[in-house]
Each structure stands twice: as C-alpha cells, then as structure tokens.
Amino acid sequence: MTASANDLNCVLFDLDGTLLDTSYDFAYAIGKTCEHFGQKTVTYQDLRTVVSQGGLAMTQLAFPELNGDELEERRQYFLDVYFNNIAHHTGIFPGLQAGLEHLAANNIDWGIVTNKPQWLTEKLLSLIKFPSAPKSVICGDTLSVRKPNPEPMYLAAKECGTQPENCLYLGDHPRDIEAGINAKMKTGAAMYGYLPQTATDKDWPADWHFHTPFEISRFIQQNF
C-alpha cells in the first residue's frame, strides 16, 4: 500500500455489499418472485454476485429468457416484495461495528453514496441502528447522474463539511472505485462484498483492498 491516509477526515460507504449485508433479503424477494411466476429460483451464491448491479440485473438473472414488459413486470413485483421485507435479515456487516463506533466516539462525519433508489434506501436505513447517524445519504436518484459520475461524491463530501480529497470511499463494485477516483477521493475496495467469484485485487485500482469488514474497522481505528 502506497497511498497515504494522513489527510483523511471522512468515511463514505457504498450501501449494499459494503456497509450492509442485504443479500439475504434480496434472495428472499427473488425467491418469492420466482415462486409467483412459476420460475425455478436462482441459487443464493449466484444472486449474491450480482446484487451490487441492482434490481434489473437480479431480475434478469432469475428470468434470463425475458425482456421488455414481461421482465419489467417481474422486476416491479420483485422490488415490491423486497420493500415489504427489506430488513428481516439485513444488518451491518459483522466486523464493521467497531469502526462505526470509533467514528461516533470521535465525532467523525461519515456518509453513504449508493445507486439504490431513495424510496428503498430511506426505508432500509430507518430500520438500521448505527452508532451515529450518517451526515450525508446520496441515493441513485438524488441527482440526475449516478456513480461512477463524481457529482454524487462531491455532494456527499460537501454535506459532510469536507473536501473530496479528504474522503475515503469504500465500495464493492468497480464503479464505486471509479467514482471515488473520478472525485479525487481515496478509495478502498470491499473485497468481501458482492463480487464475481473470480474477482481479485488486480481487478481493482483502489488505494486499499479490504478482504474482511474487520480490516476496515482496524483501518478506521488507526487512521481517523
């Protein structure tokens, strides 16, 4: 690791697959959708690798032969089931709690930048208890552009009262790292997230690679 953490004063997280493990509730919703439409369900492991690509990708995985209105009908059904069961099995990734507690104890601002739409993000976050509240929550539809465009990153930094170059952005998808780089932020790849099974550190031009949530907590404790 050659990057310097000396000037960091804010942590920004991607949501699904980085801060929260939402995969089990997505799997439940896909299972119910497949059951409703008489389709054989996908395996949890296959679904987990595409969660960070969003609802359409998950629906396409379950219904690969469909497109157009039929696929959209299933996507909407899937999202409705997910909304109504959004936090039955979702929680902060084990190991991240210590890092979040460190941020809270030291009054360090943190935020969330996600491509998840606001109606799902707000519902989910209302059901999760954090040691301190995020200072900024930027959703996929907060602005007219989404990650990897840097504008959501700039807005999050502004709402946290800091400059982009003083932020660490953590994410589990290539567009997360791309977004952080585009915004001139330091970046950390959450290699424990919803990655393809073949993904390696070489695929991620991040400043740091974290293979467990515990590593992120330790990094936060040592550098903030």
Automatic annotation (TrEMBL):
Gene3D superfamilies: HAD superfamily/HAD-like, Putative phosphatase, domain 2. Signal peptide: none annotated. It holds the Pfam family HAD_2. Keywords: Carbohydrate metabolism, Hydrolase, Magnesium, Metal-binding. GO terms for molecular function: hydrolase activity. Coiled coil: none annotated. SUPFAM superfamilies: HAD-like (SSF56784). It comes from the Bacteria. InterPro entries: HAD-like_hydrolase_sf, HAD-like_sf, HAD-SF_hydro_IA, HAD_2, HAD_sf, PGP-like_dom2. PANTHER family: PHOSPHOGLYCOLATE PHOSPHATASE. This is HAD-IA family hydrolase. It comes from Thiomicrorhabdus marina. The lineage of its organism: Bacteria, Pseudomonadati, Pseudomonadota, Gammaproteobacteria, Thiotrichales.
